[in-house]
Structure formats: structure tokens, C-alpha cells
Specification:
Length: about 300
């Protein structure tokens, strides 16, 4: 089985039901996640927002045990199969540190024959690639549908942000700038986020923020309940030219070694969060691709 709208289903279930990681299939029915057999989620791309409830306040949280995960972080890496990462000495942080902390999948695939990056990111946000098979900007590939994850979260009163490295935060990032690429930022392909491709969209600007702001939000404990994080094209393992080294895996691993501890040391994480680290697709194949899940509740 292939990738199944996993971000949507995971965020929906975690934020509405409070289930622990050991009770959820996080988007793949293809193989083991750590040592726990997980049930298969229904294969549907239609999600009804009314099943979601806004996050409880502190008073409610103290009187209920159903909500076990309050914050979701997702970090997206690029273009490597799991066999390229697992055991690779260039990925010392992933192999020596993260795999000791994280549950992980070894049979997790991108949708069959769906390449390049952009269609896979659209799958992660909306459970389909809308027939798109290229990396064109939102000006060409934007979608009018409101049936995608962050729109449903908005309707449910659940906060979200997309943290993108190398954007300036003064406008909606609809075109490439520096080492930022819209194809790695799926939220900006939806008209209800961008006010119909408006670079001055206040909705977009308030939700799609420069990556350095994540550290501030973590420090001040003001992070959203759902946080989608994309490094730039050097730090996400996409590029090898014009980067700090020509070893794309090492560059991404080094970035994770700085980024992940900032999340794990935060109050938001320690008070009930889950961190997903995954790749968009398998370069030259559909995978398996990496999926690591870091949470005290992961088995």
C-alpha cells in the first residue's frame, strides 16, 4: 500500500481524539512502525471537518485523559529512499540519535509513480495530486477546493502554521526566492489560503512564516497546534550544488541535528507533542522512504 493522506488523518485523529501514537496507523499500511502492529485507517480522501473539536483549555485538560497529543510538528526532507539514509555515515544524527528516540517505518512509500516533488506535497495536504505531475508555481497549479487539511483545521478552530526557510515573511511566498521553492510548501497552492494567488494575502502571510520564527514561538510557547516545517533546498537534502557541502544527505542531517533539539527541548513538545520527520518521495523510485516519529507516546 502507498502513502495515504497521512498528515491529514494523523492531525485529525490526534487533535480531535487525542489517541496515542501506538493506536494509530500514521499514513501507511505497508509495514511495521517500530514494534507495534497498528490498525489500518480507511482509505478515503474525504474528511468531514465536523469531527474535529477545538483544543481544550488547561482546565479541561486537567479533568480529562482523552487528549494525549496537543501539538504536531512535521519536518519534510527530500528525494531519498530509506536505504539511502539508514546506516549511511553521512546521516550520523539520524542513525545515532534519532533512531534511538523515534519509532520508524520501513515500508512507507510515496503514491505509485507520483513524481516529482510538488504532487507528493499536494498528497500530503489534500490526499490527491489533482492530476498535477510537475513543479509549477501556484500561478498555474493553484486549487479552488477547500477540502484540504489546513482549511479543515481552520474550520475546527485548530491553529496551524507553515514554517519555510528562506522566505522573508512580508508577502505570501508564491514564487521561488533564494533557496526557497513553493513546490515544497503545499499550503500556498490553495486559493483559500492565498486569497486567490494574492502575494499580499493576510491569511497567507499570517500562517506561512519564515523558519527562524519557529525558535521564537517555541521559546515563548506560542506555537500552533499543527506545524509544517520545510528546510531550504540545501538543508532538506534536495540539492548538492551551491550548498555547504556537496553531500546532500550530510547537509540535511546537520540541519536536523540543530533543528530537532530545539523542538524537543520546548515546552510545547514536553507538554504533549509529536514530531514527524519524513521524505517527499524516493529518488528514482517510490521508496520505501523514511518516516520517523518522535514522541514519548511512540512505541
Amino acid at each position: 500500500m502507498r502513502r495515504l493522506f497521512y498528515l491529514s488523518l494523523v492531525a485529525f485523529l490526534l487533535l480531535s481524539c487525542g489517541s496515542s501514537v501506538s493506536q494509530l496507523a500514521f499514513g501507511t499500511t505497508a509495514g511495521p512502525v517500530a514494534a507495534t502492529e497498528l490498525p489500518t485507517l480507511p482509505q478515503s480522501t474525504a474528511v468531514t471537518p465536523t469531527i474535529l473539536q477545538p483544543p481544550v483549555n488547561n482546565t479541561q485538560a486537567s479533568t480529562t485523559t482523552t487528549r494525549t497529543v496537543s501539538t504536531v510538528f512535521t519536518i519534510m526532507m527530500e528525494n531519498h529512499r530509506w536505504r539511502d539514509i539508514h546506516g549511511n555515515p553521512s546521516a550520523v544524527y539520524i542513525n545515532s540519535t534519532l533512531l534511538r528516540l523515534a519509532a520508524h517505518a520501513e515500508q512507507y512509500y510515496n503514491p505509485p509513480s507520483i513524481h516529482p516533488s510538488e504532487p507528493n506535497y499536494l498528497w500530503l495536504e489534500a490526499g490527491t495530486n489533482f492530476g498535477i505531475a510537475d513543479d509549477a508555481d501556484p500561478s498555474r497549479n493553484h486549487q479552488a477546493t477547500p477540502n484540504h487539511l489546513v482549511s479543515l483545521l481552520d474550520h475546527a478552530g485548530i491553529s496551524w502554521k507553515s514554517y519555510q526557510e528562506d522566505i522573508d515573511g512580508t508577502r505570501c511566498p508564491l514564487v521561488s526566492q533564494g533557496l526557497y521553492a513553493p513546490k515544497h510548501n503545499p499550503m500556498v497552492y490553495f486559493d483559500d489560503v492565498t486569497s486567490h494567488n494574492n502575494p499580499n494575502s493576510t491569511i497567507c502571510i499570517s500562517h506561512v512564516r519564515p523558519y527562524p520564527e519557529l525558535a521564537t514561538d517555541l521559546r515563548q510557547n506560542t506555537v500552533a497546534h499543527y506545524n509544517f516545517i520545510t528546510p531550504n533546498v540545501c538543508n532538506d537534502m534536495h540539492d548538492s550544488q551551491g550548498c555547504s557541502t556537496t553531500d546532500s544527505i550530510k547537509n540535511g542531517d546537520t540541519w536536523l541535528a540543530h533543528a530537532v533539539p530545539t523542538i524537543l527541548q520546548s515546552k510545547a513538545y514536553q507538554q504533549g507533542a509529536i514530531l514527524f520527520i519524513t521524505w517527499d518521495e524516493g529518488e528514482g523510485s517510490d521508496g520505501p522512504i523514511g518516516l520517523l516519529v518522535v514522541s514519548p507516546k511512540a512505541k
